[in-house]
Amino acid sequence: MRCAQVEPLVERYVDGVLQEAQASQVRAHAATCARCRARIETARSVAGILAAQPAIHAPRGFASRVMDAVYREALVDRRLPAERVGAGAPGAAPSRTYRRLGMSFLLTAGVLAASLLIPKVAYPSIVERGESGLSRGSVVVVRSALDGAETAVRGILREQGNGGNAR
Amino acid sequence: MTDEQIIGRVRGGETRMFGELVHRYQDPVYGTVVRAVGGREDAQDIAQEVFLRVFRGLDGFKGESKFSTWLYRVTWNLCADWLRRNRRPDRRAAMVAEADSLPDRRVNLEEGFLEEEQRGEVRRAMGKLDERYRGVVDLHYYQKLSYDQIAFVLDMPVKTVETRLYRARKMLRESLESSGQGGDE
């Protein structure tokens, strides 16, 4: 055997998967060829290094984050059967937790929307009254906007009170 | 409890049991993703998406392969999608080398400096491998999958798996030889 014939067989020789006749030819050649002996040695090193690579660990809290996402998905995905997260199953507690979270989110969004809308509606009316400050008319507009927002928030709260256990 | 038993309970409505599977496979999935995409930044998001897809697809899992093999298939498909969208090989190679350069407590100090140099060179060379080769190396050496399992995960003939694995090892050996880290002549 020559070097060019041995070279493509080096890794298989190291793994011991060559036919015995072929393996003994490689062995005989390597006994007289320093270059191929070195190749075999290097191939052994590569195999050893690959087999002993350190494990990479998932970051702390990764599994919890995944399960949070799983429960969120189970909550919003209507395709999933209700019993998958429903009462009686061990997954029931997280389901309730997330329902409450969803309602709190709705409530917060309502309040936020109201707080953003009020200045937008009221401010132009105030400015229109001129530099002398607030007129009686602008105060009425602001109060009216506030009343509207309050009614909207009360509506959301009432709706949630009827629909579940948010309050 | 086997994976299949856990899957049965999740299908039966015990969503909480899916957490067992996540705990069991979070390290190999995360490790595969880090090595494939070359960074921890995106790896968390991708690994999380792997588990979400598996959860969504659990009802469709027929048990034709082992659960772990199917999981690696989902993992590798997501990594391949990510790599197609974010092809920056130079950056990736550097990050893979960094990701793999964690201290290995199994390294015996007596094995010396030369072996550590060889490890470093193999890591660098791994980072430069084309993803076709990196995939088989990762699944075979890190996840300990058989050729048959790798063939299923990567959707290719077993013979191709074997050929790619040996080519990858040959490339790694050549890179050690050319860097002067090969065996003595």
Characterize this entry briefly.
The complex is a heterodimer of chains A (about 170) and B (about 180). By secondary structure, chain A is mainly α. Chain A folds into two domains: about 5-50, no CATH class; about 60-165, no CATH class.
What does this structure look like?
- The complex is a heterodimer of chains A (167) and B (185).
- Chain A is mainly α.
- Chain A contains 7 helices and no strands.
- Chain A has helices spanning 3-6, 10-15, 20-32, 34-51, 62-76, 92-128, 136-163.
- In chain A, helix 5 (62-76) crosses helix 6.
- Chain A is rod-shaped.
- Chain B is mainly alpha-helical and 185 residues long.
- Helix content of chain B is 73%, strand content 0%.
- The longest helix of chain B has 21 residues, at 158-178.
- The interface between A and B is large, with 49 and 51 residues.
Q: Keywords for this structure?
A:
heterodimer, A: 167 residues, mainly alpha, B: 185 residues, Rna Polymerase Sigma Factor, Chain: A, 9 helices
Class based on secondary structure composition and strand pairing of chain A: mainly alpha
Task: Give the ordered list of helices and strands of chain B.
Answer: HHHHHHHHH
CATH top level class name of chain B:
Mainly Alpha
Dominant shape of chain B: elongated
* CA distance, first residue to last residue of chain B: 52 Å
- Strand proportion of chain A: under 5%
Q: What helical percentage do the residues of chain B reach?
A: over 70%
Overall pLDDT level of chain B:
82
- The total count of helices of chain B amounts to 9
In terms of quaternary structure, what is this?
Answer: heterodimer
Architecture blueprint of SSEs:
The complex is a heterodimer of chains A (167) and B (185).
Chain A: H1 3-6, H2 10-15, H3 20-32, H4 34-51, H5 62-76, H6 92-128, H7 136-163
Chain B: H1 3-11, H2 18-37, H3 40-57, H4 67-85, H5 89-99, H6 112-128, H7 131-142, H8 147-154, H9 158-178
